[in-house]
Specification:
Oligomer: single chain
Number of helices: 19
CATH class: Mainly Alpha
CATH architecture: Orthogonal Bundle
Radius of gyration: 21 Å
Bound molecules: 4-fluoro-L-phenylalanine
Low-confidence stretches: none
Strand content: under 5%
CATH topology: Hydantoin permease
Shape: globular
Number of strands: 2
Distance between the termini: 49 Å
Number of domains: 1
Helix content: over 70%
C-alpha cells in the first residue's frame, strides 16, 4: 500500500475489527449446516479442539507476520524471503474465489429480509419455499447483484467505516437475538433430541470427513489462510498482546458459531418433517428451518426481520473486507485508482458468482465432483487452496523465518506469550503433517477414492 499505514486505535480496536471480519455467514449459515451434516456433537468437539490448538497457532502466526513486516499478505512473504513471494499470490486467490459465492448467500439473506418486510413470513415457512426460490433463474441473480452492488457502493464511496460503526451496534443485538431464539427453540417439544445430537459427541458418527469439514470451517470462520489476518496484523500496534487478542477473537467467533448451531440444529428436530433426514440439507438448512421457528409464535415475524437484518450486517462487514482485499491487490499490481479497481473487482465477481447463483436453477445439472456449483467453489477455496496456503505458511514460519522471530514479535515490548511451546510445536510439526493428511483425505473424498495404499479412507 502506498498510503501511510493506519493503525487501530485503543486496545479493543484490533479485536473488534478482526472479530468483525471473522464473524459472518461462516458462523451463522455455514457452521450449523456442517455440524448437522457431519455428526453433530462429534463435529463440535473436533472443531473446538482444532480451534484452540491449530487455529490459535495459525492466527498468532499470521498476525505476527503482518505486524513484523508491516505489509499485507501479498507482500509479507516476499519481504522476508524473495523466493516465497508466490505464496502471496496464492493467498490472494482465496478472497477472489470466496467473495462471489459469499455474495450469492448474502443475496439469499437480503431476499429473506424482503420476504419478512412484505409480510410473507408464513409463506417462507412453507415446504419448498427456499427450493422454489433458488430454482428460479432470475431471482437469486437479482438478490446477488443487490448484495454485491451494495458492497461495492460502500467501498466506492468509502463509507466502510460507517458500516463498521453500525455493525458494532448490530453485533451485540445479534448475539442477544441468537441467545433468545436458541433458548426458545431448545425448550420446544422434540428439540431435546437435537440438543443431544449437537452437544453429546457420538463417536460412531466420526469419519475423516468430519475432520476435513471442521478444518475447512476453521479457516473460513476465523478468516485464516486468506491473508486477512496478516493485513490486520500490519495495522496492529506493538503494545497490544497478540496472544490475548487471538484468544478473545477465538472465543467470540466460536461462541457465535456455537449459538447458531444451538439455534438451527434442535430446530431441525422440532420442525423438520423429515427429522434427521433434514440434517444433510446442506447450504439451505438455515433458510429452511428458521422461518418455521419464526412462524411458530406470536410476533415471530418481527423477530425474523430483525434476525435477517443483523445477519445481513454481519455478512456485509465480511464481504466488505473480502472485496477491500481484492481491490487493494488490484490497485497494488495495476496502479489503478480506487474507483476503476472497484469497478473491475465488481464486474469480475459478478462473472465468477453467476454460475453459483444459477447452480440451483438452469445449471442444476452441472455437478462438478458431484457438488452444486456454489458448494464446488466453497470446496475449492476451503478444502483445496486454503489448506495449501496453511501448509506453506507453517513451513515458511517453521523453517524459513523460524518461529523464534514470530515469538519475538509476539513478545514485543515485554508482552508475555504463555503458549509459545504449543505455538512452535504446532507450526513446525503437528499442523503441517496434519493438514497434508487431511488434504489428501479431502481429495480422496472428492474424487471418491475409497482406498489409498491399501488404507480404507471412505467408510
Ligand atoms: N470469516 C468470515 C465468516 O465466517 O463469515 C468469512 C470471511 C470474511 C472470510 C472476510 C474472509 C474475509 F475476508
Amino acid at each position: 500500500m502506498k498510503q501511510k499505514r493506519s493503525s487501530f486505535t485503543g486496545k479493543i480496536g484490533f479485536v473488534l475489527a478482526a472479530a468483525g471480519s471473522a464473524v459472518g455467514l461462516g458462523n451463522i449459515w455455514r457452521f450449523p449446516y456442517l455440524a448437522a451434516k457431519y455428526g453433530g456433537g462429534i463435529f463440535l468437539l473436533v472443531y473446538i479442539i482444532l480451534a484452540v490448538t491449530f487455529g490459535f497457532a495459525l492466527m498468532c502466526a499470521e498476525i505476527a507476520l503482518g505486524r513484523r513486516t508491516g505489509k499485507s499478505a501479498i507482500a509479507a512473504f516476499g519481504y522476508l524471503n524473495k523466493k516465497w513471494s508466490f505464496v502471496g499470490w496464492l493467498v490472494a486467490l482465496v478472497p477472489v474465489l470466496i467473495l462471489p459465492y459469499y455474495s450469492v448467500i448474502g443475496g439469499w439473506i437480503t431476499k429473506y429480509i424482503s420476504v419478512y418486510l412484505t409480510g410473507n413470513g408464513t409463506a417462507a415457512a412453507g415446504e419448498g419455499f427456499f427450493a422454489d426460490f433458488t430454482a428460479t433463474t432470475g431471482e437469486p441473480i437479482v438478490w446477488f447483484l443487490i448484495f454485491i452492488g451494495l458492497t461495492a457502493l460502500v467501498l466506492l464511496f468509502d463509507v466502510s467505516k460507517g458500516v463498521e460503526q453500525v455493525s458494532k451496534i448490530m453485533m451485540p443485538i445479534l448475539i442477544l437475538l441468537t441467545v433468545g431464539i436458541a433458548v426458545y427453540i431448545v425448550l420446544l417439544p422434540g428439540a431435546y433430541e437435537g440438543v443431544k445430537y449437537y452437544l453429546m459427541p457420538d463417536f460412531s458418527n466420526f469419519t475423516i470427513a468430519t475432520v476435513v469439514a471442521a478444518m475447512g470451517q476453521l479457516f473460513y470462520s476465523m478468516s485464516l489462510a486468506m491473508g486477512i489476518m496478516i493485513t490486520y496484523g500490519s495495522y496492529m500496534k506493538k503494545d497490544i498482546s497478540i496472544e490475548k487478542s487471538v484468544r478473545q477473537i477465538e472465543v467470540f467467533d466460536t461462541g457465535i458459531a456455537f449459538l447458531a448451531g444451538l439455534m438451527v440444529i434442535p430446530a431441525v428436530f422440532a420442525f423438520g418433517e423429515g427429522g434427521e433426514a433434514s440434517l444433510g440439507k446442506g447450504p439451505g438448512l438455515m433458510f429452511v428451518t428458521l422461518p418455521k421457528v419464526f412462524d411458530s409464535f406470536k410476533g415471530g415475524h418481527i423477530i425474523g426481520v430483525a434476525f435477517f437484518i443483523m445477519v445481513f450486517f454481519a455478512a456485509l462487514t465480511s464481504s466488505i473486507s473480502l472485496m477491500e482485499t481484492v481491490i487493494s491487490i488490484v490497485r497494488d499490481k495495476t496502479g489503478l485508482g480506487r474507483k476503476s479497481a472497484c469497478g473491475i473487482v465488481f464486474a469480475g465477481s459478478v462473472i465468477i458468482g453467476l454460475p453459483s447463483a444459477l447452480g440451483f436453477s438452469i445449471w442444476d445439472g452441472i455437478k462438478p465432483l458431484g457438488m452444486d456449483i456454489l458448494t464446488f467453489f466453497d470446496f475449492i477455496s476451503n478444502s483445496v487452496v486454503m489448506p495449501i496456503v496453511a501448509i506453506l505458511t507453517c513451513i515458511f514460519i517453521g523453517y524459513i523465518v523460524r518461529p523464534k522471530q514470530m515469538i519475538n514479535e509476539i513478545e514485543a515490548q515485554g508482552a508475555t506469550f504463555n503458549q509459545k511451546k504449543l505455538f512452535s510445536v504446532m507450526i513446525k510439526y503437528i499442523a503441517p503433517v496434519f493438514i497434508v493428511l487431511i488434504f489428501i483425505f479431502s481429495l480422496c473424498e472428492a474424487f471418491n477414492i475409497e482406498t489409498l495404499f491399501g488404507i480404507q479412507i471412505l467408510k
